[in-house]
Amino acid sequence: MTTAEKKKADRRSPYAEKVITTDQAAALIKSGDDVIVAQCASEPQGCMSRFHTAAPGVKDVRVFSVLTLKPYDFYMKPEMKGHFELASWFHAAGSRQALAAGTGTVTYAPNMLHRAALDRLQARKPDIFFGTCTPPDSKGFVSLSLGITYEKDILEAATTVVLEVNRNLPRTFGDAHLHVSDVDWFVENDQEVPSLPSPNPDETEKTIGNYIAELVEDGSTIQLGIGGIPNAAALALKGKKDLGVHTEMMVDSMMELYEAGVITNKRKSLCKDKFICTFAMGSRKLYDWLDDNLAVEFRRGAWVNDPCVIRQNSRMVSINTCLSVDLTGQVASESIGHN
Questions:
Q1: 3-state secondary structure string, 86-145?
Q2: pLDDT, tens digit (0-9, with 9 covering 90-100), for 89-106
Q3: One of 248, 256, 297, 334 is an active-site residue; which one?
Q4: 248 is catalytic
């Protein structure tokens, strides 16, 4: 081995010594633990698919998650009751199904997303954080890639940090970097990154989108949510000029508006020339576009979603979908009645 090769091996050895299997990662969970997992496209699916294997030796474990993407055994199977409980910050298909089936393994934890980390940390120090990242670079840094809404705040406070390393994740910038010395264990899992197809808006949604676009001035800073109406609004914005982005979620339509020359970020009053987001989910094309893209900065949700920060953007326009509005003007986007 040459001197250069030895130095490279030495630099990587701390990472290599921390690589474990998914079953070994699941075995780290102990009775009474509070486990917090990364959300959406950052979900550590390899580890979560093996949580249930720890059930015979544990009880009263709570797993906090946002929009859990898969129906994992640790909360879908009735025999997991008393061993695991999914504390869901935002219900998805699996958690709704488990609730409807009365498994007794799912509960709802209300939160404001920009306070999710702070509120959880004030309640209790997390025992284990499970997330995802890119492989380490030559300096020993990984990128948390597609989301740091609450993830980085939680992992900095957690007793144990486990990250799934996935070569298919994009390397992103902003506050997404982390050194391998700050991570306890790594699990290598080169799976396909969870994606989200862009919904095709129907005629009603297109009409609503056109009305919304009329309210957006050139030079505005926009936030787009998920769903047919925000997508329709994005299509209707193609005649605008010099829009900027300050958003919770980065989606395909923002990339498309940038490629069309509509979004330039040049007239932003806050973080000029930069896309600002806290997580991303979309197509493989979006992930490839985000890879090594210096125009996009991922920042913590506690900052991105803070109303005091948002108000610093000039001509800020937020475009989202809701499910119901009551007579006092209150808007609900997560439930209708008890559903």
A1: EEEEECCHHHHHHHHHCCCCEEECCCCHHHHHHHHHHHCCCCEEEEEECCCCCCCEEECC
A2: 988 999 999 999 999 999
A3: 248
A4: yes
